[in-house]
Structure formats: structure tokens, C-alpha cells
Write a structure and sequence with these properties.
The complex is a heterotrimer of chains A (165), B (293) and C (757). With 165 residues, chain A is α+β, with helices and mostly antiparallel strands. Chain A has five helices and five strands. Chain A has two domains: 4-79, Beta-grasp domain (Ubiquitin-like (UB roll)); 88-155, [2Fe-2S]-binding domain (DNA polymerase, domain 1). With 293 residues, chain B is α+β, with helices and mostly antiparallel strands. Chain B has helices at 12-22, 35-40, 77-82, 91-97, 103-106, 111-117, 125-130, 227-233, 240-253, 264-287; strands at 5-7, 26-29, 48-51, 61-64, 68-72, 134-139, 142-147, 152-154, 157-158, 165-172, 178-185, 196-205, 208-217, 224-225. In chain B, the strands form four sheets. In chain B, strands 4-5-10-6-7 form a five-stranded antiparallel beta sheet, sandwiched between helices. Chain B has a four-stranded antiparallel beta sheet with strand order 11-12-13-14. Chain B has a three-stranded parallel beta sheet with strand order 1-3-2, with helices on one face. In chain B, a hairpin with a 6-residue loop joins strand 13 (208-217) and strand 14. Classes of the chains: A alpha+beta (165), B alpha+beta (293), C alpha+beta (757). At the A-C interface, helix 2, helix 3, helix 4 and helix 5 of A face helix 1 and helix 18 of C.
Chain lengths: 165, 293, 757
């Protein structure tokens, strides 16, 4: 089987790659486009480590064929920052110690970004439902929620409750 | 991943033509959340997949006055979860679609894929069957319509022929005072396959149950209609006792097996519990004129 | 010591930015030029003889560079003495998923295709899967000959091995180890008791659940030196093992530890590196092997299965009289596991004057075990804490007061004759007693509150570290300890405190085996405890050297100098100063008159400092479906001294989540034939963000006399009480006992139904 040309916009840049028809978007990003931030934790859509934002919607890229993303917009963890400055979600995760081994974190911060893009003031329950597709073995999720709540408070112009000093 | 070729048809008709031309060994690719798992595990080994994700025709989600609600096969379950069309009379469908996987999975998983993969535990099947939906199928010789409760033949088997494609489902207008609800049992709050799923709809007329449809998922080779339970409700004035009785009948009608997700006994028990709970909510929704969520 | 308040600071992890931006590199992210991709063919049977293997079609597939079977490997043992040495099966397979052949190909899909083309003819044999069956005469045997137990992992973890007797009898049997602890007269103790409670507890195999599947890259250079990129908890121990397995000196192996995506004890044994090394040698190309999630679940190294038959006696007034237990541990197909830990924790948490605990290790045809965070401790604690709850209820005593009445204190003798070191068990219980979730609990339908306490004895290991001043005056700490839990951040703080500098000005590196000072594995909750002590010593040594140089420059005695704001100055005379940059320059430049500042610290801490943890759970049960929801969860832990409270809280919350998983939803389920029935994360259920509540943390500090600044090991204790806390809470909600974990909805429904009868 021969490779095909895939043209997609990744983190705002038009990108070309040669991919096999059976390759997933996850694999194309990691192997052919050189963006290894997105991780493979299970390859069955059950862990969320491979989450990217595809045409504005968060998806598990292990279950998307690369060619299905032809012509689309993909945002990965490498595209979260704003001209080199960390996204507030990224900053909050670091500040709150909401990461340990870090393997699930690219997927988690991308998902958190997608959540807040859709709903800038989620409740704690909405945050937890929203991140239920992102498994983490190290943190127990409490500091994730605290980090995201701090960002939510900031977005809504309120001082954060329980914010880290 | 198993090595297969990728075909991008330009229309549903073209998809059908590709299947007919290329012959056996092809699989239709909808959201990928079932098929790609199967090709990665090498339990399904297609020589080519036909990608439906660019066919706007299949993504239509619209209410057609006089007909009912049309859900194109490629409508993503997340879209159903969020769409205002499913608040109110068609809420039972969003009850099911909103439970599949995670948000990431729901952005990919489609109604058509869920139906055509035909896992007995599929979450959109019981609600759509309870809502009396019909499947619209396109084949090489034209289209046909099949009531959804006749669509499934067995685990992973539907009435679709080798070169046929599900265009979507049409959910008829429910009766004026009707309501529905779908519940399932899973060990975790999300991410799990249903151990048991029950979708119930009730239509009221002059204080009595005019019609009831109860569809059971994951307790048989296909979704089942609990026809004896339905019959026990029709014509009755509803009460908790009447509902309890129907729930017990539904439990008897279930045909579960024991597997790693649940035993026969536990599943039968859950059918009773979930039938009772969904009937109670469906009744309540029907009393309120069908306002669901 | 200095005025700097680095200890107790919530310093951000230095690797945080790299991790939230995706820049941190894990093994699978590395792509050496020319790398080949490996896949393993695995046995579908738990026990079978291999009649033949045909690899011809696989070899002929375009893109395949190498296919190996056991027969192709030199030095392969027919009856391997450890899991790591069971590189590819020869003659027999002993667990489902055991690798039988290996392929290296240009890409991973071709490698998978090649695997499909290999034909193996198996003679399927009966398998011993249930440990109780495996103990019986006539059970299918896992080993044909008795083999010495591989202690290395238990030692790496710093867990107890005293009292262990390796069984090497003449009759082949699946029983490979027996231990026995006794003291006093248990029968007399039970006779004197007013109440005797007996129960059999069961916890099956559980996967450590790290999010990064195992991965490795192996490559040989033209001088036949092996370089291995690893995701592992100890680069030195991997190097030693590879040296022994491959038969080459350690000096010809370089192990490069990459960022590790979780380990929890599993990534100490090298089970992917040896085959990758063989493939790399054969192909003369770098070979990358990354396990899939289903390979991890089917054929990695889960924690062992435990069956614990426990009987305890107590008087009406709450005095304990006796404990008798038989603990059966099933570590899968290779011996070596935390049998002692479980036995000791059953008998030694509370004052039992009479005790008799027997432990038996029995092999089965399942994948062999590896450590999982406080190995054996959640198990033993589950058993004894369930007993304590049951006794308190039956006697009408307050569950917490009953614990306080009987908990051990420093000096009480453990079952193996050693006294309990200084510990915080009482203080943890007191913290639970004061917490509103416990103190203000009220009965409510279908709701319950339960708690449990447990501990981890704590590991010890020799360690060294160095602190080097760079030419620009900045300082670097170098250790060989892999940063599994944020320990590098703790090291920055320890070094900062010793040196009198802000932690932000200190860098920490974990170096590879060629350049790092020796450290043991990052396991056993001994990294900060042991290596931290070495860091402290190295920093103190560096400080001394810095002050020496400064004293020459400033013509003042070292005792009159202090370090602040990047300078060394005379106390009380800030204008008489020399910058660290100048000292760095003066000690490294050409013609410089001072030796480079290079602080060294080596220690051997020989005293353990146990860490105790306690957890409270408030749950609500749906009696019709059996679903258990956790409404509130509180984790209490004595950490000695919280060097970095944020890191400590993270450990407490992560460990709690794992303990809850063991209690409610996680188990590897095997068929009677030994096939794994839930080989995906869909059916091997880890808790998600919506399944868990906010995990509240209470840090208790009972200083250790031995750890740096009084710190105790933090990493392992927080998993220990979880399963028991959950079981005790669900019992409180339902009135039913749950001796079998996990407490799945069907078990709750069945227990409630039995209760009605």
C-alpha cells in the first residue's frame, strides 16, 4: 500500500505529511509530523492521553484515521500556548502541583482547554464529568479540579477561592 | 493496526457503489469508535474502509413536521446530547446518546455506527426502539425502511446487506401526552459498556396508558422488546404497583448471559430495577406533556 | 543551618513546564535514526508445551529485519530463574501472554503483520490458576525443579525479608516459600477471649495502572557497548540485571532513564529491555519496543493475589488476646513477593500478646508479580482493619477508641522480634478522631462512614549525591535517583536549606549510569529519606568548600561568614562580600587558584522510619443497583516533615485513588484456563474524575530522628488504608461484611439479599 499526502492545519500551521491509509491521526502527529506531546496510553479511546482538538472538538486521536482529518484543524498540547506564554490552564496545573509523572497531562490540559472554550464557567461536577475521559493514576484528580477552578474564577473576573499563594 | 486501504466516497450513493464495485472485504467507517478497535485487535480485517465522515447528507439532524425527527447516520452522539431538539418529547434518545463513553468519544461516535455495530449493549438502540424509530437504508437497488426493532439479527449482525448503508433513522412524532427515559447500569459513572440498558416510553390517554414500549439492551443477542410487560401496562391506570408488575415481567422476558461484565442473576435483577425506574420517569414526563430534560 | 525557609515551601516542580507543554520526553518519544520497531508473539495459553515454531513466512515479509525465538538466544535458560530472564519461552509457556517470538521491522504495523504470520504448535496443558487448587497434591506444576527465590525486587523496595524460609524440598510442588511467626499461646488467647471473629479475606491481582506502557530502546555501538533508554525506577538496578542476563560487564552498558510515566513498583524488573537488546544486536540497528495497553494488562507484572484467613480474639473490655492467620500469596509463575509484609501487618499493627501467622507462597500459571506501592501492606491492613471494625461493632465499642486502646507504640515488639521504631500511628488515629467527617457523622439511610489506618515500614538504602558549583556560580545537585514522585523538587529544597540559597537557584539532575553517583531504585518510599540525606550531606559539604574559598578571599574565618543573595559575606558587614559567581569563576577558570567546588555526600541510613496513613470514607449505596458513591474522602498521613506540602498532598491523593480502586473496581479477572477476561481499560476499571470526590488531606508531622529535616517516606503509605476504609464504610452503610474485593455492585446486591434472608 502506498502512502498518501495528508494536508492539515496543526496548531495554526498548514502541514503536509505522507501517511498510510491505516494510520491514525495520533500516529501521524507523533511519527510523521514530529509532535510527540500527544501520548498513546491505550489506543482504544479509554484513557484520553491522546486527546487533541479537531475542528474545535476534543477527540481521542487514536480512533481517528489520519486521512479522516484531511483539510481539518488540529490543536495539540504544543499549540496551547499564546506566543510562548503558557495558557492559564497550563500555568494553573503547574502552580497547583496538578501533575506528577506527566504522561496523561497533555491530554488533560487539552481537554480542559476544550471544556472551558465551550463553557467558561463550569461547576465542579461539570469539570469532573468533562474530564472523566482522561485517566490519571498519579494525582487522584483533586488538584486538576482546583487548578481549573482557579482558571474559571480568573476568566469570570473573580479572585480564585483557595488559590495557591 | 491491520493494513487496509482508505476510500473517500463523494456521496452516500457513491459509498454504496464503492462497496458494490470493490466487493467483499470492505467496511463502512463512521465514527471509528467500534471499527478501529476491531481492526487494531485484528478481529476484523477489512481490505478497505469507506469513510463516511465527509458526507454532509448523512449528518442532517432535523425535525420534519408531519414526519418526525430525522437523525442522519453520521450525527455524533455528542451533538445529540447537546441539541435542543432532544429536550422534551425526544429526550429518551439523548438519555442514551449522552451516556456513550466520554466527551471525546461522543464527539466521534455516531448513531449509525452504534446501531450498525449492533452490540447488544449499544446505548442508542433501546431508546430508539422505545421511540418506535425506523431505519432508512440505501442499497444498490434503492432505499428501504425497516422498523428498528426488526433491524438487529444478532450480536454484530443487522439486516444490512453487503453493499447497503444506513442513511439514518426517523423517529415519529410521539403521541401528545407521552414521555420516555433510558437508564443503564455501569460500574463506573461513565466510560463503561452497559451491563443492562432499558429504554421505556409511555403514552397516556384519558388517564390510562394508551401505549407502552420497553426495550431492553445487553440482556439478549439483540435489543429486546419486553412485550409481556408492555401488554400488562396497556389500558391500565398507572400506579407504582402496576409498574412494579410490569418491571417483574420485563425481568422474566430478558435473556441475559453471564460474562465478565455481569451474571445472569444480576442482569435480570437490574432489568427489573431499571424498568421500574424508567417507567416511573416516563410516566412523569408523559404527565408533564412530554417535557423531558 | 540557615534562615532560608526552603523546607515546607510549596516549590513548583521544575519539570512542570516541560510536562504541561508536551516537551518532556518519554521513551516512546525518542526516535534514533534507523530505529526498528519490535513486537512480541505471545502465548494464548496459560500452560503449554511448545512443539514447534515456524517463522519462515514472517521472515519473508518485506520490511521485517529479524525474527527470534528462544532457540536463537544464547544464554537462554530453559527454566529461567526470574521473570527478567524469561526473555522468550523455550519448551514451555507458563502464563498467558508469555513471549514466544520477537520481530523487529521497519514499522510497527509490519511487525504486527509478521507476528500474525508466525505459526506455533502448542500442546495445551492443564493450568493451575486458583492458588488454593495450586497448593493441592497433583496440581499442575509451574516449575519442574525448585529454584532459589529472586529477592532483588523485595530488596529494592526495602521491604522485609526476615523470617522467610525458601522451600527447596525434594517433591516438586507449587509451594515455594513458607513463613511462620508466633509468640505466646494463641489457643490460650482464644480461650480467654469473650469474642472470637473469623473471616477469610481475598484480594485478587491488580495492575499498577501507570499511564505510560512499558517501552525501551536498545542499541549497540561499534565497540559492542549497549545503550538502553528506559522507563524505569532505577537505572542502576536495570544495568546490573542486564549485565547478568546478557553476560556483559556493567561498564559496557549505559542506561539512560527517560521521563517515566508512572511506575508504582512495576518498573523495576527489566522485562522488555533484554529482548530489545537481543534484537538490536542481531540487526545492528536501534530497536524500539513499546507495549500496548492490552499487553500490559495481560502479560506484565501485576500485584499478587492474597487469600488471608484471619481469626482474632478480644475481651469484652476491648483488650485483644490473640491473632491467628494463614496468608496465602499467589505471585504468578515466579516466586518473590511481599508475603512477609502482609503477614507482619496483620499481626503487628495492634497489641496482640499471642500470635500465630503462617504465610505460604504458591505459584500459578499467571504472569509473575511485581511490587505495587507498599506491596502486601494494603492486603494485610485490609484484613486486620476489617477484623478490628467487626470486633468493635460486635462488642458495641467505638471503632476509633478501640483502635487507640490497642494500637502499637514505639518499642512494642513486632512479630519478627524487632521493636517498632518511632512512629505516628497514634497521632494519625487522633487526627481521624478530630476530623468532622468522622466526629460529626450521623446515621442516614444507605449512607455510612468508615475508616482505616495502616503503615509502611519504610525502605533504607545506601545512597550518594553530589553538589557541584558551575563556573557561573550556580549550583547543581546530581543524583542517580529517578524522579518518580517529584523527589528532585524536594532535593532542591533540601540543598537550598543547607546552602542558604533560594531553591529556585538550585538545579537538580538525574544522570545516567555513566555519570551519576549510585542510588537505589525510586521505590520503597526511601528516595527523599535516603537520597535526600545524601543530598543534604553533599550540600553541606559544598557549603563548607564555598565558605573555605570565601574565607581566603575575604580574610575572615568561615564561621563568621554567611550566604545570602548570591553572595558570601561577613556576618554583620554586608559590604565585605564575594559573589558566588566569582567563586565559581575562580575555582574553574584556567589559572584559577581554587579547586572546583564539588560537594559529596554518601550515607547509609540503617534505621527505618515507618510512615502511617489513615483514611476516612463517607459513602452512599444504591441498594437496588449496588452502586457505591463516595461522598467524602479524607486522607491523613504522618510524613515526619513535609518538605514540600504540595508534593506530599499529591502523593496522598494519588495513593488514596489507587486504594479506592482496589476497594471498589479494580481486578484482573482470569478464566479457569488462565486467560485474562478484561484485557482493556474498558473492563479493567480505574477510577475517573467523576467517580472520585475531592480528596481532602491532613498532614501530620511526627519528626523522624533519621530522615532529612525529620522527613519520613511519603510515597507508599497513602495506598495502604484505602481498601479497608472503603470496606468499613460500605459495611457501615449496609450492615454487611465485604471480605472479597473489589466491592462491585453485584456483590453489594448479593450481600443485601443474603442479609434479608
Amino acid at each position: 500500500m502506498s502512502k498518501r499526502l495528508l494536508t492539515i492545519t496543526v496548531n495554526g500551521e498548514l502541514t503536509e505529511a505522507l501517511v498510510q491509509p491505516y494510520q491514525t491521526l495520533l500516529e501521524a502527529l507523533r511519527e510523521d509530523i514530529g509532535l510527540t506531546g500527544v501520548k498513546e496510553g491505550c489506543s482504544t479511546g479509554d484513557c484520553g492521553c491522546c486527546t487533541v482538538i479537531l475542528d474545535g472538538k476534543p477527540v481521542t486521536s487514536c480512533l481517528v484515521l489520519a486521512l479522516q482529518a484531511e483539510g481539518k484543524n488540529v490543536r495539540t498540547v504544543e499549540g496551547l500556548d499564546h506566543d510562548g506564554a503558557l495558557d492559564p490552564i497550563q500555568q494553573a496545573f503547574v502552580r497547583h502541583g496538578a501533575l506528577q509523572c506527566g504522561f496523561c497531562i497533555p491530554g488533560a490540559v487539552v481537554m480542559a482547554r476544550a471544556l472551558l472554550d465551550e463553557n467558561p464557567s463550569p461547576t465542579e461536577e461539570e469539570i469532573r464529568w468533562g474530564l472523566a475521559g482522561n485517566l490519571c493514576r498519579c494525582t487522584g484528580y483533586t488538584k486538576w479540579v482546583e487548578a481549573i477552578q482557579e482558571v474559571v474564577a480568573g476568566l469570570n473576573g473573580r479572585p480564585a477561592e483557595g488559590a495557591m499563594k | 493496526m491491520y493494513k487496509f486501504d482508505f476510500v473517500a466516497p463523494r456521496s452516500p450513493e457513491d459509498a454504496v457503489a464503492q462497496l458494490a464495485e470493490r466487493g467483499p472485504g470492505g467496511k463502512l467507517l463512521a465514527g471509528g469508535t467500534d471499527l478501529l478497535l476491531q481492526t487494531k485487535a485484528r478481529v476484523v480485517k477489512p481490505s478497505y474502509v469507506v469513510d463516511l465522515s465527509r458526507l454532509a447528507d448523512l449528518e442532517r439532524l432535523e425535525y420534519r413536521p408531519g414526519e418526525g425527527l430525522w437523525i442522519g447516520a453520521m450525527v455524533r452522539s455528542r451533538a445529540i446530547q447537546l441539541s435542543p431538539l432532544f429536550r422534551g418529547r425526544f429526550s429518551v434518545i439523548a438519555d442514551g446518546a449522552g451516556l456513550i463513553g466520554s466527551i471525546q468519544i461522543r464527539n466521534l461516535a455516531t448513531v449509525g455506527g452504534n446501531l450498525c455495530n449492533a452490540a447488544p449493549s449499544a446505548d442508542v438502540s433501546p431508546p430508539l426502539i422505545a421511540a418506535a424509530a425506523r431505519a432508512e437504508i440505501l442499497g444498490p437497488t434503492g432505499s428501504r425502511s425497516v422498523p428498528l426493532d426488526e433491524f438487529f439479527l444478532g450480536p454484530r449482525k443487522t439486516v444490512l446487506g453487503p453493499a447497503e448503508l444506513l442513511l439514518g433513522v426517523l423517529v415519529p412524532d410521539p403521541a401528545p401526552r407521552s414521555g420516555g427515559h433510558y437508564l443503564r447500569h455501569t460500574p463506573r459513572k461513565e466510560m463503561d459498556i452497559a451491563v443492562v440498558g432499558v429504554g421505556s416510553t409511555i403514552a397516556l390517554d384519558d388517564g390510562r396508558c394508551a401505549d407502552a414500549r420497553i426495550a431492553l439492551g445487553a440482556v439478549g443477542p439483540t435489543p429486546l422488546r419486553a412485550v409481556r410487560a408492555e401488554a400488562a401496562l396497556r389500558g391500565q391506570r398507572l400506579s407504582p404497583e402496576v409498574i412494579d408488575h410490569a418491571a417483574r415481567l420485563a425481568a422474566e422476558e430478558a435473556r441475559p448471559i453471564s460474562d465478565v461484565r455481569g451474571t445472569v442473576e444480576f442482569r435480570r435483577h437490574l432489568v427489573e430495577v431499571l424498568t421500574r425506574r424508567t417507567l416511573s420517569v416516563a410516566w412523569q414526563n408523559a404527565e408533564q406533556g412530554g417535557s423531558g430534560r | 543551618m540557615t534562615d532560608v525557609a526552603a523546607i515546607g515551601q510549596r516549590l513548583e516542580r521544575a519539570d512542570g513546564q516541560d510536562k504541561v507543554t508536551g516537551r518532556a520526553l518519554y521513551v516512546a518519544d525518542v526516535k534514533p535514526p534507523g530505529v526498528l520497531h519490535a513486537k512480541l508473539l505471545r502465548s494464548p495459553h496459560a500452560h503449554a508445551r511448545i512443539r514447534s515454531i515456524d517463522v519462515e513466512r514472517a521472515k519473508a515479509l518485506p520490511g521485517v529485519r529479524c525474527v527470534l525465538t528462544g532457540a536463537d538466544l544464547d544464554r537462554i535458560e530453559r527454566e529461567p530463574s526470574s521473570r527478567a530472564r524469561a526473555i522468550l519461552a523455550v519448551g514451555r509457556v507458563r502464563f498467558q501472554g508469555q513471549p514466544v517470538a520477537a520481530v523487529a521491522a521497519d514499522d510497527v504495523h509490519t511487525a504486527e503483520e509478521a507476528i500474525d504470520l508466525i505459526e506455533v504448535d502448542y500442546d495445551v496443558l492443564p493450568a493451575a490458576i486458583d492458588p488454593l487448587e495450586a497448593m493441592k497434591d497433583g496440581a499442575p506444576l509451574v516449575r519442574e525443579h525448585a529454584v532459589a527465590t529472586d529477592d532483588s525486587e523485595a530488596l529494592a523496595h526495602g521491604s522485609v525479608t526476615a523470617g522467610e524460609v525458601k522451600v527447596a524440598g525434594s517433591e516438586p510442588t507449587n509451594i515455594t516459600s513458607r513463613v511462620h511467626y508466633h509468640r505466646g499461646d494463641v489457643e490460650g488467647g482464644f480461650a480467654a477471649a469473650d469474642l472470637v471473629v473469623e473471616q477469610t479475606y481475598h484480594i485478587g491481582h491488580v495492575h499498577q495502572g501507570y499511564m505510560e506502557p512499558r517501552a525501551t530502546i536498545a542499541a549497540w555501538d561499534s565497540q559492542d557497548r549497549l545503550t538502553v533508554h528506559v522507563s524505569a525506577q532505577g537505572q542502576f538496578s536495570i544495568r546490573s540485571e542486564l549485565s547478568a542476563i546478557l553476560g556483559i560487564p556493567e561498564s559496557r552498558i549505559k542506561v539512560i532513564p527517560m521521563e517515566i510515566g508512572g511506575g508504582f513498583g512495576a518498573k523495576i524488573q527489566p522485562i522488555v529491555e533484554p529482548i530489545a537488546a537481543h534484537l538490536a544486536r542481531k540487526t545492528r540497528r536501534p530497536v524500539k519496543l513499546v507495549l500496548s495497553r492490552s499487553e500490559e494488562l495481560i502479560a506484565a507484572t501485576p500485584s499478587p493475589e492474597f487469600i488471608m484467613e484471619v481469626k482474632t480474639g478480644v475481651k469484652k473490655d476491648g483488650t485483644l488476646t490473640a491473632v491467628k492467620a494463614r496468608v496465602i500469596m499467589d505471585p504468578g509463575c515466579f516466586p518473590g513477593g511481599p508475603l512477609n509484609n502482609a503477614c507482619l501487618l496483620i499481626a503487628c499493627l495492634y497489641k496482640f500478646p499471642n500470635l500465630d501467622v503462617e504465610g505460604i507462597e504458591v505459584l500459578t500459571h499467571k504472569p509473575s508479580q511485581a511490587a505495587y506501592r507498599a506491596p502486601g501492606a494494603p492486603h494485610g491492613t485490609f484484613a486486620i482493619e476489617s477484623q478490628m471494625d467487626a470486633m468493635a461493632r460486635a462488642l458495641g465499642l467505638d471503632r476509633l477508641e478501640f483502635r487507640l486502646q490497642n494500637c502499637i507504640v514505639e518499642g512494642d515488639l513486632m512479630a519478627h522480634g524487632e521493636p517498632w521504631p518511632n512512629n505516628g500511628m497514634r497521632q494519625v488515629l487522633e487526627a481521624i478522631a478530630k476530623h468532622p467527617v468522622w466526629k460529626d457523622r450521623r446515621p442516614a439511610p444507605n449512607r455510612g462512614v468508615g475508616f482505616a489506618v495502616g503503615g509502611w515500614l519504610g525502605g533504607i538504602q545506601p545512597a550518594s549525591a553530589s553538589v557541584r558549583m558551575n563556573p557561573d556560580g550556580s549550583l547543581s545537585v546530581i543524583t542517580g535517583a529517578i524522579d518518580l514522585t517529584g523527589t528532585n523538587t524536594a532535593f532542591r529544597q533540601i540543598a537550598a536549606q543547607e546552602l542558604g540559597l533560594p531553591a529556585e537557584e538550585i538545579a537538580v539532575q538525574t544522570a545516567d549510569t555513566d555519570s551519576a553517583p549510585y542510588a537505589g531504585t525510586s521505590a520503597g518510599s526511601k528516595v527523599v529519606y535516603a537520597v535526600g540525606g545524601a543530598v543534604q550531606a553533599a550540600a553541606a559539604d559544598a557549603r563548607r568548600q564555598i565558605l573555605e574559598i570565601a574565607s581566603h578571599e575575604l580574610e575572615a574565618a568561615p564561621a563568621d561568614l554567611e550566604i545570602a543573595d548570591g553572595k558570601v559575606h561577613v556576618k554583620g558587614a554586608a559590604e565585605r562580600s564575594v559573589s558566588l559567581a566569582k567563586i565559581g569563576n575562580a575555582s574553574t577558570r584556567y589559572g584559577g587558584k581554587y579547586e572546583p567546588v564539588f560537594g559529596r555526600g554518601s550515607i547509609t541510613v540503617t534505621q527505618r522510619s515507618p510512615g502511617f496513613a489513615g483514611q476516612i470514607a463517607e459513602v452512599e449505596v444504591d441498594p437496588e443497583t449496588g452502586s457505591v458513591s463516595i461522598l467524602r474522602y479524607v486522607a491523613v498521613q504522618d510524613v515526619g516533615k513535609a518538605i514540600n506540602p504540595t508534593l506530599v498532598e499529591g502523593q496522598m491523593q494519588g495513593g488514596s485513588a489507587q486504594g479506592i480502586g482496589i476497594g471498589l473496581s479494580e481486578q484482573l479477572v482470569y478464566s479457569e484456563e488462565g486467560r485474562l477476561l478484561n484485557p482493556s481499560l474498558l473492563d479493567y476499571r480505574k477510577m475517573t474524575a467523576i467517580d472520585l470526590p475531592r480528596i481532602e488531606t491532613v498532614i501530620v508531622e511526627v519528626p523522624s530522628p533519621f530522615g532529612p529535616f525529620g522527613a519520613k517516606g511519603v510515597g507508599e503509605p497513602p495506598i495502604v488504608p484505602g481498601p479497608a476504609a472503603i470496606a468499613n464504610a460500605v459495611r457501615d452503610a449496609t450492615g454487611c461484611d465485604f471480605p472479597d474485593l473489589p466491592i462491585t455492585p453485584d456483590r453489594v446486591v448479593a450481600a443485601l439479599a443474603r442479609q434479608k434472608e
